[in-house]
Design brief:
Strand content: 5-15%
Low-confidence stretches: none
Helix content: 25-40%
Number of helices: 3
Length: about 100
């Protein structure tokens, strides 16, 4: 019910072929509606994976989109994960010379 109230189920007019399995149907105005059951299943699966990690500092939450940066910062504050809000620099997990290098788990 909270998904419906927050508008999580509403997508855009563009759908990639890889997203076809997550689409419920297409509205008359051309916007796609996401399958909320699959969305919930993927969220539960991600939560189980994160809970299984012993040290929460090993989890890195990344978002370059402005509208999701606040969410990942709050998530990281509550769980102890490492947030990367803003541009993700290529080589962050692989290039040890970088100042922003982070050791992958």
């Amino acid at each position: 019910v909270k998904f419906l109230l927050s508008g999580t189920h509403l997508g855009s007019n563009n759908v990639d072929f890889q997203m076809q399995s997550y689409i419920y149907k297409k509205k008359p105005d051309g916007a796609y509606i996401f399958n909320l059951r699959k969305t919930w299943e993927k969220l539960v699966m991600a939560a189980r994976v994160i809970v299984a990690i012993e040290n929460p500092a090993d989890v890195c939450v990344i978002s370059a989109r402005p509208y999701s940066q606040r969410g990942i910062l709050k998530f990281a504050a509550h769980t102890g994960a490492n947030p990367v809000a803003g541009r993700f620099t290529p080589g962050t997990f692989t290039n040890q010379i970088q100042a922003a290098f982070r050791e992958p788990r």
